[in-house]
Every structure is written in structure tokens, then in C-alpha cells.
Write a structure and sequence with these properties.
Number of domains: 2
CATH architecture of the largest domain: Orthogonal Bundle
Strand order of the largest sheet: 1-2-3-5-4
CATH topology of the largest domain: Transferase(Phosphotransferase), domain 1
Distance between the termini: 51 Å
CATH superfamily of the largest domain: Transferase(Phosphotransferase) domain 1
Helix content: 25-40%
Number of strands: 9
CATH class of the largest domain: Mainly Alpha
Structural class: alpha+beta
Radius of gyration: 21 Å
Strand content: 15-25%
Number of helices: 11
Shape: globular
Length: about 300
């Protein structure tokens, strides 16, 4: 009978060797959290020099599966932005390790999963919680924009919930700087992000200001938190664009009764299909509704 070593495939042998090397640096990869076209996200841990164990998440990127344009353009940008991020409502990177065909991005672990998962299991989210979470989201996006970067893929799946009931913006695979190396502001021409959260200017297929389109995506997230459904549900891009431009969305009756007029007015100002008329992020963070009383444990995430 063959030995265990002989029975292992080449890929399995490589995984064991990688695990041993990571363990030598204090890291251990755990269970699967999510999977994408170019890799996966897993739980992880890091044993500090003092013996304490820190729980992390790890994005494992298989470089061999990256498409050429992603490898040349998007992937280097993601690695660049995650190196310097430091904000309480943006996922902070612990370390980045590159090993052969794999890149391991170790980052903060958000134990309560995604905002999408929370919305799906919750019939109604109180206005105070929506207010608090949206204030945190806007703060995180404001930080990114202030450092000259657009996220370009803001959606409920990319908003994580921590053990302390705070939100963290994650996944910078489509993030990009908004200025060229000469300092000139540049528009985006790439159709990226999730269609249901895409601004009309992206669906029109013309160059767009990614900072302004990020604001639209924030508006969709705010609507979803308030209503537990999408404002625009058509999967056909042309029909979706017509829905956005004709402002066919509305609030369910239960939301009209449960949420204040300033909250509803804010969504209306953000989901403005004309980019030049859309509320600016600076104006959003200055809204009185955004300054409402915070409550760190208004009701624990269940």
C-alpha cells in the first residue's frame, strides 16, 4: 500500500507545504467563508509572539486564475489600497504574504457576517440602527474618497458586521485612484460592480465620475436597510436604466410609517439619476439625520 505522501496529489502536497510555511509565521488557515472566481475567503488566526491568538479572515487569491486585465490592472490596485487603509469602518489589513501562485491577504475578522445576510433574516431594521450603520458607511467611504480612491463595488455583500455591532467596508477588487500620476482627476470607463447597485451613468456606458457613482451605491444600500428589498429589480440593463431614470421606486407603506421624513428625503436626494444633481458625500455626512444620537448597543445583532 502506498504511503500517505504518495497518495496525495501535487496540489494537496503544495497546500500542506504552504500551510507549514504559514504556520511558521504564526498563521493558520481555517474554514471557508466565501468563494469567488479568483480565490476564496477563509477564517484564519495569528499567534502573536506573546502567545495570544488573534482571529482574522484571509483572502486567498490564486494568481493562476486571474485574467490578464485583472492581473495587470485591478489586482495591483487592490494590493496597493489595502496596505495603507486605517479607518474604524473599513476592513484593515493585517498582513500580505505572497507564496508561489497564491497571495494571502490577512485582515480583520467580522464575526457577524455580511449586511446582506443580516437584511435577509431581519423583517424590520429600526431607524436608529439604520441611521448608525449608514453614518458609519458614509464615514468609511468619505475616508476613501478623501485619500483619492473610489470603491466602485459598494453593496450589501461588501459590508461586514463586527462582533461589536459596527459595519466595515470590504473588498477592494475594483477600487481605483481617481487621479492620474500627474494629479489630474480621471473618469472611469470600466463597467464594474454589481448591476443592481450601479449608477445610471455606468449603465449608460459612458465615462463616469466614480466618486459620484459610489454615492448612488450608498443610496441603494440605505434603501435596502430601510426596506429589506432592492429599489430597482430589473435584470435587463436597458430596462433597469429606464427604471432608474424614471424614478419608479417607492417606499413600502410600512417604511413610510416607520421612518422619519428626513431619512426618506435623504434616499430621494441620493438616488438622483442625474449625476450633477445627486447629493454630494460631504452634504450627506452633514445632514442632521446623520448626526442623530448613537447607541452602541441599541439592540444586539441577532
Amino acid at each position: 500500500m502506498n504511503s500517505l505522501e504518495e497518495e496525495l496529489t501535487a496540489d494537496e502536497k503544495e497546500e500542506l507545504a504552504e500551510a507549514a510555511i504559514l504556520a511558521g509565521r504564526g498563521y493558520k488557515i481555517g474554514s471557508l467563508l466565501g468563494k469567488g472566481a479568483f480565490g476564496e475567503v477563509r477564517t484564519a488566526s495569528y499567534r502573536r509572539y506573546d502567545g495570544r491568538v488573534e482571529k482574522l479572515a484571509c483572502k486567498v487569491i490564486d494568481v493562476k486564475k486571474l485574467k490578464e486585465d485583472f492581473m495587470e490592472k485591478f489586482f495591483p490596485r487592490e494590493l496597493e489600497i489595502v496596505r495603507w487603509i486605517d479607518h474604524p469602518h473599513v476592513v484593515v489589513t493585517h498582513s500580505i504574504l505572497s507564496r508561489r501562485s497564491k497571495v494571502y491577504v490577512f485582515m480583520e475578522y467580522a464575526s457577524n457576517g455580511t449586511l446582506l445576510a443580516y437584511v435577509k433574516k431581519t423583517s424590520n431594521i429600526p431607524e436608529r440602527r439604520v441611521q448608525r450603520w449608514f453614518r458609519q458607511l458614509a464615514s468609511g467611504v468619505h475616508y476613501l474618497h478623501g485619500h483619492g480612491w473610489a470603491h466602485r463595488d459598494l453593496k450589501c455583500e461588501n459590508v461586514l458586521l463586527t462582533e461589536s455591532n459596527d459595519v466595515k467596508i470590504a473588498d477592494f477588487g475594483f477600487a481605483r485612484p481617481v487621479r492620474s500620476y500627474t494629479g489630474k482627476k480621471e473618469k472611469s470607463a470600466t463597467y464594474c460592480g454589481s448591476r443592481a447597485y450601479c449608477a445610471p451613468e455606468i449603465l449608460r456606458g459612458r465615462p463616469y465620475d466614480p466618486l459620484v457613482s459610489d454615492v448612488w451605491s450608498l443610496g441603494v444600500i440605505l434603501y435596502v436597510m430601510m426596506c429589506q428589498l432592492m429599489p430597482f429589480r430589473n435584470k435587463n440593463p436597458k430596462k433597469l436604466l429606464r427604471e432608474q431614470e424614471s424614478r419608479t421606486w417607492k417606499f413600502p407603506d410600512r417604511v413610510l410609517a416607520a421612518f422619519s421624513q428626513p431619512a426618506r428625503a435623504l434616499v430621494l436626494s441620493i438616488l438622483e439619476p442625474v449625476p450633477a444633481k445627486r447629493m454630494k458625500l460631504n452634504a450627506i455626512v452633514d445632514q442632521e439625520w446623520m448626526k442623530g444620537r448613537d447607541s452602541s448597543d441599541d439592540d444586539s445583532v441577532r
